[in-house]
Every structure is written in C-alpha cells, then in structure tokens.
Amino acid sequence: MLIRTCMAKIHRATVTEANLNYVGSITIDEDLLDASGMRPFQYVNITNLRNGVYWQTYIIAGPRGQGGVCLNGPPAHHFQPGDLIIILAEAWLEPSQMGELNPTVVFVDDKNKVTEIKKHQALPHGTVR
Predict the structure, then answer these.
(1) Is the pTM of this model over 0.85?
(2) pLDDT in tens, 21-79
(3) Strands (E), the chain
(4) Among 28, 58, 104, 124, which is least packed, fewest CB within 10 Å?
C-alpha cells in the first residue's frame, strides 16, 4: 500500500502569467524548484487563494531567477497574474517511510524570491512541527 503525502510546498507564490494557448502545466522558476525539491514533470496541486480553485497539473521548469509562475492551458481561466497560490508537491510512500517524511515549505515574497525555507517534522500522535 502507498500513502499519498505532501513532500513540498511553495507558500503564497504570486502568479506572474496565465497562458491559455499553451498545452498545459505550470511553469515555475528553477530557483523555486531547487529550493523546494520539486522536479520538472512532477504532479502538483495548486490552490488559488483568491477564488478557492484547486487544480492539479505537472511542472515545467521556467527560467532561473525571474520569479516566473505561469499557469498554462485550461487553468489560465482560473488563475490570473497577481493571484496568490499554494503549490503542493506530492509523493507516494510506503507506511514504513512515513517517519522519514520531512516536507519542505518554501516561503516567497511578492516577486517569488525565496525568503525562508522550513522543514516540517512529524511528531508523536500525528502532530507537525
């Protein structure tokens, strides 16, 4: 059995572009991918703080250092430049691996530059620190 888990999160990133005419995906600045441990073509869940829309798609690496976060294809109807979003990357783990899970949380400023990186750590009884 595998358990669906959160392995990383980019918290309150700002959408910089929405491109309806692209095939699909989310383009994310490579600096943010490096900081979070997310990888190109990995599936992510995206929540829009403005309208509550929840979307799942895969990552495309964007140019490094530009702070780009672009929703491509159909999600461009629901995510617009300036929207704040949460990007959650998942991993599938065996129950025996759950104790090793140490999700990365990347905090960014309004230009999508990393301001802080934290690691969540599981504590007894399912609490998180």
Answers:
(1) yes
(2) 998 899 999 999 999 999 999 999 999 999 999 999 999 999 999 999 999 999 999 99
(3) 3-14, 17-19, 25-29, 43-48, 54-62, 69-72, 84-93, 104-108, 114-119
(4) 124
Encode pLDDT of 118-127 as tens digits. 998 765 555 5
Could you list the active site residues? 25, 58
Give me the amino acid identity at 17.
E
Q: If we measure between CA atoms, which residue out of 3, 12, 2, 10 comes closest to residue 104?
A: 10
Three-class DSSP category at 99: helix
Structural domain for 66, as ranges: 3-93+101-126
DSSP assignment letter at 27: E
Answer yes or no: are the C-beta atoms of 63 and 29 closer than 8 Å: yes
Rg of the chain (C-alpha set): 15
The number of domains in the chain is 1
Give pLDDT, residue 65.
Answer: 97
| Alpha-carbon span 68 to 70, nearest angstrom | 6
